[in-house]
Amino acid sequence: VTNQVRMNKLPINVIIDGAKKRNFYEEERISTDSTFFDFFPQIFIAGGRKGALKQLTDIIITEKTALRLFGTTSAIGKEVLTNDRYENKYHVTAVVKDPPPHSSIQFSCLVLMDESRNSIRYLTSTTSSTYIKTLPNEKAESVAETINKTIKPLVQGEKMKTTTFQLSSFQQAKYDRKVTDNVITATDKQMYIVFAIVAIFILALVMINYTNLSAARALQRGQEAGLRKIIGAGKQSFIYQFVVESLLFCSLALLLSLLIVAICLPYFEQTIGHQLIFNYWSDPRFWISIFSTTLLIAIVAGLYPAFLVSRFKFTEFIKGNIASSTKGSSLRKGLVVFQFVIAIAMIVCATVVRNQVDFMTNQKLSYQPDQILVIDRAFTSNFDLFKTELKTIPEVINTSITTSPPGGNNYRVSSSNFSLGEVIYQHNIDDDYAEMLGLEFLSGENFDLKKPSENDGQVIINETLAKLIETTNPLNLEEPLKGSYLLTLERVKIKGVVKNLHLQSLHESIKPMLFAYESFNGLNVGFALIKLKTDNVQQTIADIEKAWDMHIPDNPFGYQFLDTRFDNLYSSEIRLGKTFGIFTTIAILISCLGLYGLVTFMVQSKIKEVGVRKVLGASVLQIIHLFNKQIYRLIVLAGLVAVPLAYFVMNRWLNDFAYHVEVSFLATVLIVIGTFILASLTVFARSIKTATANPVDALRSE
To answer: If we measure between CA atoms, which residue out of 595, 628, 646, 657 comes closest to residue 216?
Structure first.
């Protein structure tokens, strides 16, 4: 290990006393060491790195924070009062540039970590993460083993001696949701991969369409090509002609697409929920890639019709046989099949994504999340007074204070218990929490205010932790759940076992959890859960805010309903569903255009045949079926390829969720049938004119 830095990210409320009222600003605070800048260098606007984080009262703020709080970036020496640090104000020692939007580490301010509260020798309640730099080619497993062997003899207390430390790479912290890090919020890497693959597929669809239409158009210009061959035009001449024409079309398309991108970019950013910081207008790599792609499409779309036309003899052009020629038809049909493979697969995938999002957002819970109000985290000693005041509001059914409201990764502390072999998540709750969330006790009972001594030495655990204790049985007891275990800082007994409940995303299986009693009648950090009657919600919230301002005036009143918190957990999937729907619509439209082009070519090559059939008594429906039956074969083949492909991809995606839907066979069948209907309508729209035309005109034109 060549260097280390510890970080702990928690929001704080900065208090600024104005002329008329007290203003609150929620800021993202990172408590860290002075070595932070060795890992993550910053651009200093005011002050400097040297001596910026020396004392516990030092604070470094970002440029945007300085402007918001003080109206200027010249903020060195200014005082910052927060609602969890009344005894000492912070003093600004430096101002740094705002972290870029794409940075994994976002913050408003940096403060020095309190050594006495975060020492590894005397572990209390902390969610700090330690980042280390190692020598090159070191493996995480061997380094972690060495760290655990080195630390255990140094630490004090039974809890620390049974705690194991694990290492994850920085890339895992960025993209793996299973890594417990409260500084970096893991992003869904799969979403970006899906976007890239879908974009490539849509580009492939466009290239196929353009190539097919270019070939059909080239064959329609048979007489021109025949005359050029007669006067000596060779293969190179045709290649030059078609590639240049293709390049002109693609260049015009490029100009239009850049205009569309400029118009649609804000809406796209809103859909994906991220600001795109890539300055493509001034980046040469962007223009090189765009021009290269445009040139590639132009060459591919131009070469195929050039080679196709150059294979015919000039006599075939003059006789008019080229229009009905079958040369290249297999390739054209193959490309249409490929188009519908992509379209059908994307429709299946979009349907599965939508079903999974519906499943997650409509999960059955033991409580009604749309009735429970969650008030933002506060640091106060007046929670008991606030709860008492709420009892006077008739619309308030129940109130609970906790460190861990559902719908997020909030927990008091997590530790890897050596004797049990898994990470245990601790949630501090009061005696009303169980009733609020409808906890179902499988054994034991809830915390009792009449027995305060028992509450401190006992915990409630969930089914998962109970099964883990019974399986491992570290004390070798006949009844493992009656033992005394080091699940918190001290050994505790199990007061009750509750049925598993979801507090987090369905991405993860339910973790081993324990619920420790907290009275919340002293100086504590917690969230208020309030169950309401839904008759007059706005007035009830206004009454709650008055009670909050009366007893907890030094903390801002911010709230969310519990169902909104759960929806926020799945914002990535919801955005993926919306974007997938847009892309799928585009893919279907392009595929239908390609089919329309193919049918156009087929119709024009069979004008004489259609005329003869009509003279012999064929009906309009029979003529339309003549074209439809050829398309049906292509759709069937596309479905046989697309469905297994979509099943494979979606099963891989669903495996990322601990709880998920299954790919519906019925929905897949309906999608294929729907594709048949859509293809039939496309063929009908193009062939109806030919089917109803006067056969005399068709025969005369031939």
So the answer is: 595
What does the pLDDT average to over 340-361?
Answer: 82
pTM above the 0.90 mark?
no
Closest to 201 (Cα-Cα) out of 575, 573, 584 = 584
Select from 13, 7, 9 the least CA-distant residue to 27: 13
CA–CA distance from 69 to each of 17, 20, 27, 32, 594 (Å)?
11, 16, 11, 22, 58
The rounded distance, in Å, linking the Cα atoms of 574 and 588 is: 21
* Distance separating alpha carbons of residues 96 and 323, to the nearest angstrom: 70
Q: Which amino acid is at 350?
A: A
H/E element, 30: strand 22-32
Please report the sign of the dihedral spanned by the C-alpha atoms of residue 36, residue 5, residue 184, residue 107.
Answer: negative
User: What is the three-class DSSP state of 500?
Assistant: coil
3 state DSSP class of 232: coil
Angle between helix 571-605 and 607-615 (nearest 10): 70
Q: Nearest to residue 124, comparing CAs of 134, 133, 114, 132? A: 114
- For residue 127 the two structure tokens come to 């969610």
Alpha-carbon gap, residue 513 to 404, rounded angstroms = 11
pLDDT digits (tens, 9 = 90+) for 67-93: 988 888 888 988 888 876 656 788 999
Contacts 24+ apart (CB under 8 A), 664-667: 664/351, 664/352, 664/355, 667/348, 667/351, 667/355
Q: What is the pLDDT of residues 27-45, one digit of tens each?
A: 889 999 989 999 999 999 9
Separation of alpha carbons 121 and 112, rounded Å = 18
Tell me the C-alpha distance between 651 and 646, whole Å.
8
**Model confidence at 590: pLDDT above 60:** yes
What SS3 string covers 72-140? CCCCCCCEEEECCCCCCCEEEEEEECCCCCCCCCCCCEEEECCHHHHCCCCCCCCCCEEEEECCCCCCH
